[in-house]
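Q: C-alpha coordinates for this one, please.
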Amino acid sequence: MGKIDILSVKGKKVGDFSIPEKIAGFKCSGQLVHDAVVKQLAGRRSGNACTKTRAEVNRSGIKLYRQKGTGRARAGNAGSPTRVGGGVAFGPKPRNYFLRVNKKEQQKALKSAIAEKFKKGSVIIVEKITISAPKTKEIKVFLDNIKAGENALIVLKGLNNELKMAVRNMPRVTAVDANSLNTYDVLYYKKLIIDKDAVEEIEGKFN
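A: Here is the predicted structure, written as C-alpha coordinates:
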Protein backbone atom coordinates (compact mmCIF):
# COMPACT_ATOMS: atom_id res chain seq x y z
CA MET A 1 0.00 0.00 0.00
CA GLY A 2 1.22 3.47 -0.86
CA LYS A 3 1.19 6.55 1.31
CA ILE A 4 0.09 10.14 0.73
CA ASP A 5 1.34 13.12 2.70
CA ILE A 6 -1.29 14.93 4.75
CA LEU A 7 -0.68 18.65 4.33
CA SER A 8 -1.69 21.75 6.24
CA VAL A 9 -3.31 24.71 4.44
CA LYS A 10 0.19 26.22 4.35
CA GLY A 11 1.51 23.19 2.44
CA LYS A 12 3.52 21.65 5.28
CA LYS A 13 3.47 17.92 5.94
CA VAL A 14 1.58 17.06 9.12
CA GLY A 15 1.11 13.33 8.72
CA ASP A 16 0.74 10.31 6.43
CA PHE A 17 -2.27 8.62 4.91
CA SER A 18 -1.98 4.96 3.94
CA ILE A 19 -4.06 4.18 0.88
CA PRO A 20 -6.40 1.31 1.87
CA GLU A 21 -6.13 -1.92 -0.09
CA LYS A 22 -9.78 -1.63 -1.12
CA ILE A 23 -8.84 1.54 -3.04
CA ALA A 24 -5.31 0.64 -4.17
CA GLY A 25 -6.41 -2.80 -5.36
CA PHE A 26 -9.74 -1.78 -6.83
CA LYS A 27 -10.33 -3.26 -10.29
CA CYS A 28 -11.32 -0.29 -12.45
CA SER A 29 -13.79 -0.54 -15.31
CA GLY A 30 -13.17 1.85 -18.17
CA GLN A 31 -16.44 0.87 -19.87
CA LEU A 32 -18.56 1.71 -16.82
CA VAL A 33 -16.74 5.02 -16.41
CA HIS A 34 -17.51 5.83 -20.05
CA ASP A 35 -21.17 4.86 -19.66
CA ALA A 36 -21.58 6.96 -16.50
CA VAL A 37 -20.00 10.04 -18.10
CA VAL A 38 -22.09 9.73 -21.27
CA LYS A 39 -25.23 9.38 -19.13
CA GLN A 40 -24.39 12.44 -17.05
CA LEU A 41 -23.59 14.65 -20.05
CA ALA A 42 -26.67 13.42 -21.92
CA GLY A 43 -28.79 14.34 -18.92
CA ARG A 44 -27.59 17.95 -19.18
CA ARG A 45 -28.99 18.31 -22.70
CA SER A 46 -32.31 20.10 -22.89
CA GLY A 47 -33.55 18.50 -26.11
CA ASN A 48 -35.62 21.60 -26.95
CA ALA A 49 -34.40 22.16 -30.53
CA CYS A 50 -37.35 22.23 -32.91
CA THR A 51 -37.88 22.96 -36.61
CA LYS A 52 -41.00 22.98 -38.77
CA THR A 53 -41.57 20.48 -41.55
CA ARG A 54 -43.14 21.46 -44.88
CA ALA A 55 -46.50 20.45 -43.42
CA GLU A 56 -46.13 22.89 -40.51
CA VAL A 57 -44.86 26.09 -42.17
CA ASN A 58 -47.39 28.82 -43.00
CA ARG A 59 -47.29 28.52 -46.77
CA SER A 60 -49.89 27.85 -49.46
CA GLY A 61 -50.23 24.25 -50.53
CA ILE A 62 -50.98 25.17 -54.14
CA LYS A 63 -48.56 24.14 -56.88
CA LEU A 64 -46.49 27.18 -57.84
CA TYR A 65 -46.82 26.76 -61.63
CA ARG A 66 -47.79 24.07 -64.12
CA GLN A 67 -45.69 20.94 -64.42
CA LYS A 68 -44.73 21.27 -68.09
CA GLY A 69 -44.20 23.91 -70.74
CA THR A 70 -42.50 26.66 -68.71
CA GLY A 71 -38.91 25.63 -69.41
CA ARG A 72 -38.22 25.64 -65.68
CA ALA A 73 -37.61 22.85 -63.21
CA ARG A 74 -40.65 21.17 -61.74
CA ALA A 75 -41.91 22.75 -58.52
CA GLY A 76 -44.37 21.78 -55.85
CA ASN A 77 -45.67 24.22 -53.25
CA ALA A 78 -43.89 27.07 -51.42
CA GLY A 79 -43.36 24.93 -48.33
CA SER A 80 -40.77 22.79 -50.11
CA PRO A 81 -37.48 22.43 -48.14
CA THR A 82 -35.57 23.62 -51.21
CA ARG A 83 -37.20 27.06 -51.06
CA VAL A 84 -36.54 30.03 -48.78
CA GLY A 85 -39.20 30.08 -46.10
CA GLY A 86 -40.02 26.43 -46.69
CA GLY A 87 -39.96 23.62 -44.14
CA VAL A 88 -36.85 21.82 -42.92
CA ALA A 89 -36.18 18.27 -44.08
CA PHE A 90 -35.13 15.90 -41.30
CA GLY A 91 -34.71 18.76 -38.81
CA PRO A 92 -34.56 18.29 -35.02
CA LYS A 93 -37.66 17.81 -32.89
CA PRO A 94 -37.94 17.94 -29.07
CA ARG A 95 -36.55 14.76 -27.55
CA ASN A 96 -35.36 13.27 -24.29
CA TYR A 97 -31.66 12.36 -24.12
CA PHE A 98 -32.05 10.27 -20.97
CA LEU A 99 -29.85 7.18 -20.79
CA ARG A 100 -30.21 4.41 -18.25
CA VAL A 101 -27.26 3.21 -16.17
CA ASN A 102 -28.22 1.26 -13.08
CA LYS A 103 -27.21 2.38 -9.58
CA LYS A 104 -24.57 -0.30 -8.96
CA GLU A 105 -22.86 0.46 -12.27
CA GLN A 106 -22.79 4.19 -11.47
CA GLN A 107 -21.30 3.47 -8.05
CA LYS A 108 -18.60 1.25 -9.57
CA ALA A 109 -17.83 3.90 -12.18
CA LEU A 110 -17.33 6.53 -9.45
CA LYS A 111 -15.11 4.16 -7.46
CA SER A 112 -13.08 3.43 -10.60
CA ALA A 113 -12.52 7.14 -11.23
CA ILE A 114 -11.48 7.80 -7.60
CA ALA A 115 -9.19 4.76 -7.50
CA GLU A 116 -7.44 5.92 -10.69
CA LYS A 117 -6.77 9.33 -9.13
CA PHE A 118 -5.12 7.66 -6.15
CA LYS A 119 -3.07 5.34 -8.37
CA LYS A 120 -1.84 8.23 -10.54
CA GLY A 121 -0.84 10.37 -7.54
CA SER A 122 -3.41 13.04 -8.36
CA VAL A 123 -4.88 13.17 -4.84
CA ILE A 124 -3.89 15.74 -2.22
CA ILE A 125 -5.13 15.32 1.34
CA VAL A 126 -5.34 18.43 3.53
CA GLU A 127 -5.73 18.27 7.31
CA LYS A 128 -8.40 20.98 7.45
CA ILE A 129 -9.44 23.11 4.48
CA THR A 130 -10.27 26.57 5.81
CA ILE A 131 -10.05 30.13 4.50
CA SER A 132 -10.09 33.38 6.45
CA ALA A 133 -12.48 35.14 4.02
CA PRO A 134 -14.69 34.18 1.06
CA LYS A 135 -12.25 35.60 -1.49
CA THR A 136 -10.75 34.15 -4.67
CA LYS A 137 -7.34 35.37 -3.55
CA GLU A 138 -7.54 33.15 -0.46
CA ILE A 139 -8.15 30.05 -2.58
CA LYS A 140 -5.32 30.93 -4.96
CA VAL A 141 -2.89 31.24 -2.06
CA PHE A 142 -4.12 27.92 -0.66
CA LEU A 143 -3.68 26.14 -4.01
CA ASP A 144 -0.19 27.63 -4.42
CA ASN A 145 0.78 26.45 -0.92
CA ILE A 146 -0.16 22.84 -1.64
CA LYS A 147 1.14 23.01 -5.25
CA ALA A 148 -2.19 21.95 -6.76
CA GLY A 149 -2.32 24.32 -9.73
CA GLU A 150 -5.58 25.94 -10.75
CA ASN A 151 -7.41 22.87 -12.01
CA ALA A 152 -8.76 21.06 -8.97
CA LEU A 153 -11.82 19.55 -7.33
CA ILE A 154 -12.02 20.32 -3.61
CA VAL A 155 -13.93 17.69 -1.63
CA LEU A 156 -15.20 18.42 1.87
CA LYS A 157 -17.46 16.84 4.44
CA GLY A 158 -20.19 19.45 4.46
CA LEU A 159 -19.61 22.29 2.00
CA ASN A 160 -19.47 25.74 3.62
CA ASN A 161 -20.72 28.89 1.89
CA GLU A 162 -17.44 30.79 2.31
CA LEU A 163 -15.51 28.25 0.27
CA LYS A 164 -18.30 27.98 -2.29
CA MET A 165 -18.22 31.77 -2.81
CA ALA A 166 -14.42 31.86 -2.95
CA VAL A 167 -14.14 29.40 -5.87
CA ARG A 168 -17.01 30.67 -8.01
CA ASN A 169 -14.74 33.05 -9.99
CA MET A 170 -12.29 30.26 -10.80
CA PRO A 171 -13.50 28.36 -13.90
CA ARG A 172 -11.36 25.27 -13.26
CA VAL A 173 -11.77 24.97 -9.50
CA THR A 174 -14.89 23.59 -7.83
CA ALA A 175 -15.77 22.68 -4.25
CA VAL A 176 -18.25 19.87 -3.56
CA ASP A 177 -19.58 17.85 -0.66
CA ALA A 178 -18.19 14.30 -0.48
CA ASN A 179 -21.70 12.91 -0.88
CA SER A 180 -22.16 14.88 -4.13
CA LEU A 181 -19.12 13.44 -5.93
CA ASN A 182 -19.77 12.22 -9.46
CA THR A 183 -17.69 10.39 -12.04
CA TYR A 184 -17.49 13.24 -14.55
CA ASP A 185 -16.16 15.80 -12.04
CA VAL A 186 -13.55 13.38 -10.70
CA LEU A 187 -12.27 12.82 -14.24
CA TYR A 188 -12.56 16.42 -15.42
CA TYR A 189 -10.33 18.03 -12.80
CA LYS A 190 -6.61 17.22 -12.73
CA LYS A 191 -6.24 17.25 -8.95
CA LEU A 192 -8.52 15.86 -6.27
CA ILE A 193 -8.05 17.84 -3.03
CA ILE A 194 -9.70 16.04 -0.13
CA ASP A 195 -10.28 17.38 3.37
CA LYS A 196 -9.14 14.84 5.97
CA ASP A 197 -12.66 14.68 7.43
CA ALA A 198 -14.04 13.76 3.99
CA VAL A 199 -11.61 10.85 3.51
CA GLU A 200 -13.82 8.56 5.59
CA GLU A 201 -16.80 9.41 3.36
CA ILE A 202 -14.79 8.46 0.29
CA GLU A 203 -13.50 5.25 1.86
CA GLY A 204 -17.09 4.39 2.72
CA LYS A 205 -17.97 4.34 -0.97
CA PHE A 206 -15.65 1.31 -1.39
CA ASN A 207 -17.38 -0.80 1.28
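A few notes: The mean pLDDT is 92. The chain has seven helices and six strands.
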